[in-house]
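To: structure subgroup
Subject: Chain for Friday's discussion

All,

I'm putting the inputs and outputs inline so they're searchable in the archive.
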Amino acid sequence: MLSVNNLSVNFGEQEVLSNFNLDLKQGEIFALLGKSGSGKSTALRFIAGLEQANNGSVEIDGVQLSVDGEHSVQPELREIGMVFQDYALFPHMNIEKNISFGINHLSKSAQRKQVLELLAMIGLEGSEDKYPHQLSGGEQQRVSLARALAPEPKILLMDEPFSSLDKSHKDHLVLQVRQILKKTNTTSILVTHDKDEANSLADKVGIIQNKQLTIN
């Protein structure tokens, strides 16, 4: 489903990533570990099309999206979902409108059906009329996940999505998210610095050290 080949990224004269290679099958969950500044988020941004590379290519489902620093498919057309640390929900929209934001090409009835199905999947039935400020941090992150899954992306990218939660809430949410991703068979990459989080969520784990990716 995803293939990243020979990715190298320089910021000016500073090399950030060198010869980064990654292949994921449909439904696989991959966790990317590394220290701050090691290039984890840079790799994620390259896959999403938000960052250009000096060398390397990315393919999703057999379609080449970027090659040697040039994007052949723009970010908004890559069928990629993203979940961030800060939830990024629209505070002036209720939960139903937040989740349906990326599927407004569907009919109103189809949008509502999908929203209600996703709310049931994330365990927040009956919350469609609430606003983000009425939910806990963990609940907001589940809504953020539902919004990212609503358009049925081919790849889901998660950049430190649990880092703002305390451990007691985080451990439970990590297991919930894994169950949801497995149920939807969504190929996913998690960027994190937490080894326990990576091992709990992912099928396989890689670490960036000295600009190189090693997969365990």
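Points worth raising on Friday:
The first strand starts at residue 2 and ends at 11.
The mean pLDDT is 91.

D.
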